[in-house]
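A protein record pairs a chain with a discrete description of its three-dimensional fold. The following entry can be read in just this way.
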Amino acid sequence: MSDHTSQIVREPQPTEATLGTLRDSGHLHRTVKAELRENLLAALAAGRDPFPGIVGFEQTVTPQLERAILAGHDVVLLGERGQGKTRLIRTLVGLLDEWTPVITGCEINDHPYAPVCRRCQALVAEQGDATPVSWKHRDTRYGEKLATPDTSVGDLIGDVDPIKVAEGRTLGDPETVHYGLVPRTNRGVFAVNELPDLAERIQVALLNVLEERDIQVRGYTLRLPLDLMVVASANPEDYTNRGRIITPLKDRFGAEVRTHYPLRLPDEIHLVEQEASLAWEGGTYADPVLPAHLVEVVARFTRLVRESPSIDSRSGVSARFAVAAAETVAASAVRRAALTGEPEAVARVADLAAVVPAVRGKVEFDELEEGRETELLTHLLRRATSDTFRARLAGTDLSGLQARFDEGITVETGDLVPAADLLAAVGPVPGLAQILAKLGVEQESPGLAAAGLELALEGLYLQRRLSKEELPGRTVYGG
């Protein structure tokens, strides 16, 4: 949920290249959790959003996460799919220092002041202040693993590297170890997505990481005190009911934070506007226009699907559902422009019909509703359109439009009917400017005028003031 419009400017990389020059610069060594804590406090004091692009969590989730960071806790985020757990975790990287020094060539990012691996300890002992230093940007201090049944201890922690053994090292030499993802994220943030899907015997390997802050690899006399923050995500159903996170591991997370879907309609709309990809880079056609009232229909539709008793609430309805629906509506407008030669691709109510088949597979239905999935989604989409019409055009004088149909005209629209044809079929409509003003249209164009007019037509039909006949690919409104 990052803000696509923000431009992040990097600070220049520090120039210190040896341990000696690093000491002379006055650099202070802080642990990862100290970095996160102090940078979070600085952001809060300055009024900056510490979790940019996260929508709808300001009063609920983010305060809990802020307290967990200030307390120095590892965190598990619980929530249904598509609630932004991974996106929220990734924003933690922005609270790390912009640049941090590491001993050049170290596989586990040892700090020059406090090396923990044998290779770096020997290097500092031998070269002293001449020890070479490199700088890592915070973007590279994040590690992430999607928990899958085939994940091994070697993937996470490490294992013996047969290549290093073949090069002449003895099996007892700790340098024959190939480090896994966790130690390679030392001095950073490590995330495990969908932790309950990790086999229980693999979860055991994380116990020392979370409590003793070290790792053990096979039978080696090896102790690496790691400096990192561990964050995990899980589905509440898995976490609490199925008991698939082993009890000792649950106990080692300092904080549990529950996420949720957007609680308010404006947040749902904001999320769709922020995440939907409507920029057609390098394309022949201009970017499609998705009017605000259609974004609202999509947002209301998503919320109605989530609240429907016919939907399996345990699986949730992801935010990706709404995003995919919005992108499908925009794509329908682009298709119309390509086939009919319309100068601009403006989405209309007629394009909403494409949503149901596109998103049907994203929803888990109750078993009793098998075979009625399309019918249920179509009904909820019609309700969302009706609710949007009432919210946007309630109290608007539509008598001028109604009068045109009282004269006996019929109007055909559809996903392949150009805006100009629709406007011509309806003819001059008294009050059209007021309709567009209510919909927030500031610069009128044929495409936007047709989009507003079509919402008004659908609203009149839903109020039983017009008839409507739906045929494959087209719709006919009549008096």
Remarks:
- Confidence is low (pLDDT under 50) at residues 1-7.
- The chain has two domains: 19-258, 265-478.
- Residues 319-340 form the longest helix (22 residues).
- The two ends are 45 Å apart (CA to CA).
